[in-house]
Predict the 3D structure of the following.
Amino acid sequence: MALSGRPRLPSNLRYTPLLAYDPTIEDAYRKQTIVDGSVCHIEIVDTAGQEEYSTLRDQWVREGQGFILVYSITERRSFERMETFRQALLRAKSRQPPLFILVGNKCDQTYERQVLKQEGENLAQQWGCEFIETSARTGHNIEKLFVHLIRSLRMVRDGAELPPEGGAPRRPTGGSQKGSKKPTRSGKKGGCIIS
């Protein structure tokens, strides 16, 4: 998995509130969860997305299976950097299109909003990926985000195709319907990038 943007979403996989951001060179998070009746082992690596650690970040991107591009709705500059991160994903994953989700974080801070929800939705539509707003502080939509990513990874594993420019998986014709409870075993792991 990969993330890009300032907020530290992975810490909320443990469902603990995050009150301040502390940039890191690299943090790793592991969680076992159940999605649609199947056990999933998630490994997330937060490399903070800082430019001085781009070599380390590129390594995790090459190994990652799903990516979450995160920007802060309270910081327009982080939103404007999303295309840079997307292009880095496309370069690093040139042999295989990346699966990614665009996330606007800090949705609990609407009084400081600099990026409209519609702007995030429009960018995600342009990229052909999913979009969701979250709050790492309150946990709003955090679990939903990771469950959606796991389901998307399973779709790809089960034959769904990704567009050449990455984004959301496309169901194969004659494939299972959304929300299918077909039992699967998943041992998906990958890298996570947050900047």
About this structure: The longest strand covers residues 27-35.
